[in-house]
Amino acid sequence: MTLDQLSAGRFGHRIFEAFASETSGPLERLQALRRELDRAGYREDQVTALLGLPHLLALQPEHFHYYDRWVLPTTPLADLVRLFLLDLPLGRSALEAALSPDSVNLLLELGVIVPSGEQWHSQVHLYCFGELLLATDTGRYSPLWPEGEDLPDRVMYIGYDSVGLGCAAPRSPSRRTLDLCCGSGIQGLVAAHYSEEVIGVDINPRAVRFSRFNAALNGIRNARFVQGDLFEPVRGTCFDRILANPPFVPQPPSVARLLYRDGGPTGEDLLRRLFQEGPRHLNEGGVLSITTDIINLGGLEERILSWSEGTPPLDVLVLVEKALPIAGYVEGHSRHLGTASGRRAHVRALLDHFQTVGITTLHGGYLIARHLPQGTPGAYQILDSAEAITHPVAHHVETHFRSREALRGGACARARVGLAEGIRFQLEVISGPESEVQRVQIVVPGDDFFPPLEISEGIHQLLRYVRKNRPPWSALATENSRPVLEELLLRGVLELHPPG
Ligand SMILES: C[S@@+](CC[C@H](N)C(=O)[O-])C[C@H]1O[C@@H](n2cnc3c(N)ncnc32)[C@H](O)[C@@H]1O
Q1: For residues 234 and 281, is the Cβ–Cβ distance under 8 A?
Q2: Of 145, 149, 240, the residue nearest 196 (C-alpha)
Q3: What ligand 1 atom has the least distance to the C-alpha of 165?
Q4: Is the beta carbon of 207 within 6 A of some atom in ligand 1?
Q5: 54 alpha carbon to ligand 1 midpoint, in Å?
Q6: Any idea where the Methyltransferase small domain is (predicted)?
Q7: 75-91 pLDDT, tens per residue?
Q8: Pair (327, 183) in one structural domain
Q9: Is residue 226 part of a domain?
């Protein structure tokens, strides 16, 4: 059973049928709906303020009823939040207090809202991310959902991985950008702001309809979305950027396949293909940005090298978020199952499977690879980031690649070196009965690229000198100091400035 079959059987139509082909969709009426949502205050800052949350990722389905009964007032905006984020039904009068009759009819025609007795339920969540509003499928907390199940064609919610990739992928101008595994279209629609043209690809036709709807709702006209298997619909085309949030959860072959989640036995089925085929679809200097759960981080460099063998060389930057303890990971990925016995069996199957295929560690992370000219030596760098990237760090990623280039090409020899903006030193004195130890950490409050980094007193003094004097790189980089300076440069603590 798929969600498309379920809703066709129940309501007589598939959702967003009007977006089944590329050139369709009631664009003007959707623009009017978007304006009404804006006027009602249905935007990230106002919705999070109303819910009292730091960001929408903190909204947990288990707490939907709490927000309804304890937190939200009875206003048109709060009712829209109930309908589009909390899986709660609204009566016609509440709907029409928030939206015009034409917009309500449009939502009915598109299958976004469906009748439930005297009330209406939404078949989608409408998530706010920056300026974007993004429809995704609801989940098992919705009364419309089949008891306890997850279905293979579910269009994925906006998760930490979705937001993190949106924040980490470079945003400088791109002529052509490819969003692989587009789901709701979030990555491609973010990219539409810095790209002349975006193509999104998903194997799931339901996801393609959602992406097209989301483009139209947000008034984005330079992004198109097509169905297909990874690079197959864009064979022979090269891009300045490729973005991918592929399914990456390792699964035993016996487990029912969810398109948005399952990445094969080690979770790397699509990741491998992205490194095999991605570099050949990049223009020189182009960047492939991927989010994934990383298995066995220690062997990642060798795996990337073997997957990308024969492709153009790459500068690879790996941003590592938090470690994901195996016990919590298998439990979290079994929650969608309807019964306690089903969940227990799934946890056991996953644990056995992880042992069989040799998965010993898991980390959340981002793999960002820049295509280099033929003959240039590639590079590989792992950096720790914040536990979860929820604020833009793309400018740091671009600086990292520029610094790598300057080191490789010798441009740093002519540059002056300074301290990156926002860097602070935090001193902690630990006093014992007989001695005192001083610890120095680099901290950059509110910047997800820089987790606290402990440094020695020697480096602390060096960095203070650099902040004050902006010395020439050539004067600072002696044979002894060069490795540590290069490390600090590639970490983004130091930055290069033109001479003079
Ligand atoms: C983890 S979701 C990502 C959704 C969205 N890009 C985001 O960042 O939230 C993975 C998506 O990959 C799609 N997918 C799975 N296998 C695919 C394949 N072989 N080719 C293209 N898309 C695929 C799924 O249908 C799903 O929409």
Answers
A1: yes
A2: 240
A3: 8
A4: yes
A5: 27
A6: 173-290
A7: 999 999 999 999 999 99
A8: yes
A9: yes
